[in-house]
Fold each of these.
Amino acid sequence: MAVAPAPLGPEARVRISSITGDGAATAAGAAVGALGLTWVLYERVLPFSGVLGFWLSWYLMFMLLYAVMAALQWDRLEATNRVTAVAFGTGGVLALAIVVAIVAYTLLKGWSAVRHLSFLTTSMAKSGPLLPLTDGGVLHAMVGTLEQLGLATAFSVPLGVTAALFLAEVGGPLARPVRTIVEAMTALPDLIAGLFIYSLFILSLGFSKSGLMVSLALTVTMMPIITRAAEVVIRIVPGTLREASYALGGSQWRTVWNVILPTARSGLVTATVLAMARGIGETAPVLFTAGFTKVLNFNPLSGPQINLPLYIWNYVHIEGEVPADFARGFGAAFVLVVLVLILFTTARVLGGSAPGELTRRQRRRLSREVART
Amino acid sequence: MAVALTPASPPGPPGDDAPRTVVSRASASDQVFRGILRGAGITVLAITAMILVFLVLQSSTAFGAEGLRFFTTSTLSYGTDQFGVAALLPDTVLIAVIALAIAVPAGLATAIYISEYAPLGLRRPLIAVLDLLAAIPSIAFALWGFIYLMPRILGTDSWLARHLGFIPIFHFRLADTPSNFVGSTFVAGFVVSMMVIPIITSLSRQVFSQAPQGEREAAYALGSTRWGMVRTVVLPFGRAGVVGASMLGLGRALGETIAVSFILTPPTDTFNYHVLESGGNSITAEIANEYTSFSTKGISFLFAAALTLFVLTLIINTFASIVISRSRSGAATEAD
């Protein structure tokens, strides 16, 4: 039975987008309607107060209105589908809103301190908490943070990557408990890391509080993060590359050093930088190990060396008496958040490529070399 | 891996193809190399073991003085052997439970949105936003919660107390003035929930995105809507992963220090399950607030409290990671 071929016309693309005109209009209508209704109820009729409560009520009202409007237009299946889609969508909006709220608020409040350039170039050595913001700053805390983070990275990257190589390349019966413990350690309370270093090095071995102690505590928290992320990166190095290396007679050590690590480089750097972003903001381990000081100390090996989180902790939580204290704390938080954003952006830029994918510069160099030969 | 093959044996009589033995022997340099890698793996285990050993050592004085009374005493006076976690521990758990009650639905919705609903172009930026959320220092959350959120959430607190007061935990026994809502367990749990959301979201998203494509298409082919597909394919597939992610979030919430100690004022030594009332405490907050007044005796009590927390979170986290690794179909996926 031959079916007549359909007349050949210009093939129209089927739109499969789930965002349609009436859908968007319904959502927008529900949003605006809910806003008006909430405003009337919340501000005029019922004795409520609070910004948070307002938006909470607005959200509930919006979902209610949207559900009603969807039920009027579409059948039950379609209406449920739409309503759940909008409910999940608010999840995405929520995550975005939290990030924006925290980052923007910190930057905004911190600006009043950071706009005095002296805030970034002086320590608190000759300044007291009661003096105005033009006097004293966070230089000593910035130096401490950067040195301690540098040392912690130098300790945790070799150890973390080696442990990841063990998990991915050697394996065996020991790998399973190590992997489980590493995963459990990534969520270890950071406070415990500080107490551990405090009891081991300061109470038992008689070291005094210093930048080195902080970096050891940070190593305990950063290493499992690096190990877990690095293992994932090493695992996605194509097995064919490994086999090619072995087929050429390479030993395992040669294969790891010349094939696997270079291929996974961008991912390993991303893992490291993300762990640094986590480490830089750790406050709890710092409480026991850094030691509070107002003076600039470049030597992490001896003497107390403050860092940014401890600075904030001290001026907001311990002192926290006068507005200048809060402003200083927010100023330090400004610097901290900016450092985290820089680290994070670096990780994103470096980690954008798949393992083994070349950067634009590497590709250009490769094509030049090919052209020359 | 250097593989030494035995020379191919001449073809035997048919039916006699017994498997030959392939001997794999690592060279000397490889053995050293593997030894180093194995050493790093053992170091990880050793560090965890040492944390446990040192916490036990330091807290032995406290356990020696208090014995099992450590778990039944709720007062927190350091000099007089009157210290226990009977109030701190339930308070810590309560804050974590409040945090999870908010973070699990929010994190799940976000994870489902990113893995199932978000337009492809929006997916990567949203994942980046979540990673950023995980990287924001907890002290920034603490400042935000303490200075921005706290004054603004009091109205909602008051509303909850007035209209949902019949639920025991929302019952409010103090006068309905804003200062009586300041520094409550509820606010602390709320701020902690924001730090737990990225953990729950990113782990559940990874599990959801592994739901088999064939089954998704099968659901669509049977006429399912997108929600129907999510409900019947993605959610059942990801259930174990979600449980694991929530447990990992619980571990994180139990150990959160800075935000909790910023917000909980005044620190109390009685367990109060009325979450809206001012004041509260947790193991982490107690340690962070009291570390300056360490005396040799006091510090042992703090270490004992930390040991309790460590054992609790280690158990929860280990369970969580086992659940998660079971839920991934094959932890050893070899992508090639």
Amino acid sequence: MIAPESGDRIAPASGDMISPASGDMISPASGDMISLQHVTKLYGTVIGANDLHLNLPRGAYALLGPNGSGKTTLINMLTGQVKPTMGSVRVFGEKTWRNRRILSRIGLCPAVDVLYPNVTARQWVRHLAALSLLPPDQVDDAVDAALKQVRLNEAADRLMGTYSLGMRQRAKLAQAIVHQPDLLILDEPFNGLDPIGRGDVIDLLRQWVDQGRGLLLASHVLHEVEAVTDAFLLIFGGRLMAAGDREEIESIVVGGPQRIEVRGKHLDRLIGPLAATIQWRELRWQPDSDDTTVGTLTAFVSQSDAFLHGLVRHNGDQGVRVDSVRGVGGQLETLFDSLMRTQRGQRA
Amino acid sequence: MSIAANGIRLAWRGTWLRRTLILTSFPAVICALSIFALEQVEPGSQKRFFRSMAILSGVQGPNRLSIPSDYKRDVYWPLLMANFFRYPQSIAMVLLVGLIAPRSISFDYRSKGALLYFSRPIGVTQYLLGKQATLWFYLACITTIPALVVYVLGLAVSPNLSVFWDTWDLPIRILISSLCLIIPTSSVALWMSSMTEESRYAAFGWLAMWVLGWVTFFALTLVASMQNAQSSGGSVLSVETIALFSPYHLLGRIQNYVFGVIEYDTGISWAFTILMIVTVATQCMLYWNVRSRLVR
């Protein structure tokens, strides 16, 4: 696990590079795709970003966090639309605030639904391609390629007012990739897409990553981003809670507060002894309907290792039989939930 | 450039815009025919024509524009052009801007498209220039371009080259008058558009500004005439002063001055000052509105 507060460099799991940053030096490594140096953004008294500090080499990253966690604020700072109150935001070594030039290397697909009902997707994407400073003789080819990539080429000459939400989402994606940016930033790109559309976008993003291009994918749906990358940045309350691949993130949770589900027989008999020996937030027994001696014991505990030791110790007592234990390793959702709880200062 | 080209293309799709543009070409034809007729008719008719034009301009009478003893192109042609700018084209301008400008920025807010504009390497200034250039193009289509075409046609049908020496400054006056009309009006209209996501509010505000100006002008004119009738000293409200309260009449006086139809007076400098302040203020507010919405 790479603690984000330390300013260490975080590499996507596919990459080899995990190297420490140069102490307190503010200057980012020249090869970094994204570099945040103690970035804080205040909206009046509301904190949008809280001392974000990390360097990301080129790669694919999933920015995870619930609604209102600061994902969009961070994206807006990366695209120069929000000025950080403190700290510096750099993309490819260049500051983003008041530096419009860097935007020709960034493709943004925002979360909001953009609708120009009286223009076709082709006209819209062409217009935005022209604004991206593409050479005029390359615009039409780039537009065709982008529309084909998002599988919108057949409907590209229809007015966007007739599009479904999913088609508009694809059009939005097409405008983000039309100028072949070095860094593609997607904010909730799966909104409104049906399962087939999601699959298509996931395929597209995998191809994008395979080409060695940068990707920052913001979402609050874990399983969608897992399909694209296993390098995660977990953000909550404007703070970067954890960063790294799934195993690295899991490692900080092991021994810490988490949810554990235990399947077995007479597990309700464990509640008393366990409750007396470990710190717990919830111990819930849910018997099966057909056999009430068998069921699931759900535990929210502050020290998972103590809980597991207790489980082993009492296994076999009073007819107790443990069939399976499912912890954070089985569900990234649970991991995320645990990190949230840790960050909120909640005790299991 | 791309923003302007796209804006022009999108606006062109409007049926009412195309109808307005066709309609506004008729006054230019009439103006061209008038110049042709002026060059052909006998002096008596020329004087009658001049008198009616001067009355139309509101500049006829003692101490104002006097009828020249013989036909002078450097007086007749500018007067004709001033009326062309002041009446049909100014009214067309109100309609045309009312059709294009209200949606121009407010729809970008509403559709969230502005967010994508600013994810491109363009700044607020370039964005606003593109939006304004769309308006400038269409306004030039109904003012500058037809006026210059009429002038060139006038030269073409004239009997000799002396026409050019008599009227060489007219294209310059046309350009200045166009600038006085186009820049402040587009600035005000886009500022209104930048204040709301609802383009109908911006359209209402735009039209209300002109209507209220007219109402104020006529109300003050009525008050002034009543004061004139009641006291021998006359009213403190002169036409020059009253015109400052109506955007339409303020622009009209400036255009009359630019075409040399009226002489310089303090009212003109006030009119220019107001126009300048309004333009600069609305440009600043326009910039601020867009920037504060999109860049935080």
